[in-house]
């Protein structure tokens, strides 16, 4: 990535950290992101799905629909996840896509995939004092058997390795605040919707939001993406922005419903207009 883009992304990340908070602790256990990890919409949190020490937890399931537009298509993510020992989560997600049209740009995004992911909490929140964040490390592996005819770089085999820190600030009980951010090494762009990138990149991500009235979570996040798309010369992908509203109708925090806007990019190269900014997203997750 160019120095100008790195500096600009760093400034945007810093601005979000300063101006926003994140999700309250009551929502952390069952709220899954697009790829099925506990987190926001596009980023993971350091928290893991609920389980007791020395035991296997109850599973959770999630479904997300992202209306990516004519070029990116409608994305459908169906996820299942389970926790172990109070420190570990392991999950699987099936991603599918449908297109109303199929021009040359849409073919870049015409792929579904399988996703396997796991996350381990290295440091528990407040373990060394009230200012200590939760710190976790995890991976995401995405794959697709075989390639698609006439689709550039369509064979999927990529992944992420990441470290993330998340901290809940509950000094104001009516408005708990959490800051979450981390860095990942990835060779997928963006989230493998467009397949592999041309190599591995270090990308930062951050989430911020606030819990309102104990039942509604409002947040925003930014995730850097590798610029290059394998098999698509001249492509330059921007970072991903999201705005999220998550509702918890269940007082036991087993069920969450969410809606949001996801911005994947617009003009990404000569003749490459993906028209995927401010696209609606809806999701539901349930912990059994």
Short recap of the structure:
This protein has helices at residues 3-19, 69-72, 104-108, and strands at 60-67, 74-84, 88-98, 113-123, 134-143, 157-169, 177-188, 196-212, 216-223, 240-247, 255-263, 267-269, 272-273, 279-287.
Structure description:
- With 288 residues, this protein is mainly β.
- The protein is built from 3 helices and 14 strands.
- It has helices at 3-19, 69-72, 104-108; strands at 60-67, 74-84, 88-98, 113-123, 134-143, 157-169, 177-188, 196-212, 216-223, 240-247, 255-263, 267-269, 272-273, 279-287.
- The radius of gyration is 18 Å and the shape is globular.
- Residues 13-29 have low confidence and may be disordered.
Please give the structural blueprint.
Layout: H1 3-19, E1 60-67, H2 69-72, E2 74-84, E3 88-98, H3 104-108, E4 113-123, E5 134-143, E6 157-169, E7 177-188, E8 196-212, E9 216-223, E10 240-247, E11 255-263, E12 267-269, E13 272-273, E14 279-287
Report the structural category: mainly beta
User: What is the overall shape?
Assistant: globular
Overall residue-averaged pLDDT value: 85
Radius of gyration: 18 Å
Task: Say how many strands there are.
Answer: 14
Number of helices: 3
Distance, first to last CA? 42 Å
Strand content of the residues, in percent?
Answer: over 45%
Into which percent range does the helicity of residues fall?
under 10%
**Domain count:** 1
Question: What's the story with the biggest beta sheet?
Answer: 12 strands, antiparallel, barrel
């Amino acid at each position: 990535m160019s120095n100008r883009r790195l500096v600009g992304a760093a400034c945007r990340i810093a601005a979000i950290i300063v101006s926003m908070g994140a999700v309250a602790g009551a929502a952390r256990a069952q709220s899954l992101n697009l790829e099925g990890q506990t987190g926001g919409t596009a980023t993971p949190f350091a928290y893991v799905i609920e389980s007791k020490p020395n035991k296997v937890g109850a599973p959770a399931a999630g479904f997300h629909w992202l209306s990516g537009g004519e070029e990116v298509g409608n994305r459908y993510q169906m996820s299942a996840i389970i926790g172990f020992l109070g420190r570990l989560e392991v999950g699987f997600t099936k991603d599918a896509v449908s297109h109303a049209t199929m021009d040359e740009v849409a073919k870049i995004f015409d792929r579904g995939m399988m996703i396997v992911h796991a996350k381990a909490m290295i440091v528990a929140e407040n373990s060394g004092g009230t200012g200590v964040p939760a710190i976790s490390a995890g991976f995401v592996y995405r794959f697709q058997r075989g390639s698609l005819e006439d689709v550039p770089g369509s064979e999927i085999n990529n992944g992420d390795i990441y470290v993330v820190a998340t901290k809940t600030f509950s000094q104001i009980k009516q408005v708990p605040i959490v800051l979450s951010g981390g860095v990942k090494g990835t060779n997928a762009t963006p989230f493998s919707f467009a397949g592999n990138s041309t190599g591995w990149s270090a990308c930062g991500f951050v989430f911020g939001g606030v819990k309102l009235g104990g039942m509604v979570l409002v947040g925003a996040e930014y995730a850097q993406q590798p610029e290059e798309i394998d098999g698509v010369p001249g492509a330059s992908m921007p970072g991903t922005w999201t705005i999220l509203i998550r509702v918890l109708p269940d007082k036991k925090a087993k069920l969450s419903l969410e809606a949001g806007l996801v911005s994947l990019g617009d003009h990404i190269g000569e003749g490459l207009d993906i028209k995927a900014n401010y696209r609606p997203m809806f999701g539901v997750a349930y912990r059994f």
